[in-house]
Amino acid sequence: MPDIITVDGLVVVYPDGTRAVSGISFSVEEGEFFGFLGPNGAGKSTTIKTLTTLLKKTSGKVSVAGYDLDKSPERIRSSIGVLSQETSLDVDLTGRENLRLQGRLQQLRGRALDERVDELLKMVQLEDVAGKLAGRYSGGMRKRLDLASALIHKPKLLFLDEPTTGLDTQSRAAIWDYLEGLNRKEGITIFLTTQYLEEADRLCRQLSVIDRGQLIARGSPSELKGTVGGDSITMTLKDGGDITLKEKAKEIIKSVQGVTRVLDSDGGIVAYAKDAGQSIADIVMALDRNSIHPASLGISSPTLDDVFLHKTGRRIRSEELGRRETEPFLM
Amino acid sequence: MTLLYDVDSLLQRYLTKLVRNPTLLATNIVTPLLLLFLFSQLLQKLSVFPGVSGSYLAYLTPGIVILNAMTCASLSGVSMVNDLNSGFLSKMLLTQVSRPAILLGRLLSDVSVSVLQSVITILVAMMMGVTIAYGLPGILLILAIVAFFELALSGVFLVIGMKSRKTETISAIGSVLFFPLVFVSSAMFPTSFFPDWAQTISRYNPVSYASDVARELVQGGLSLGTLVSAFLVIGAISAVTIVATLYQFRKVIS
Question: Do B93 and A78 touch (CB under 8 A)?
Answer without folding.
Answer: no
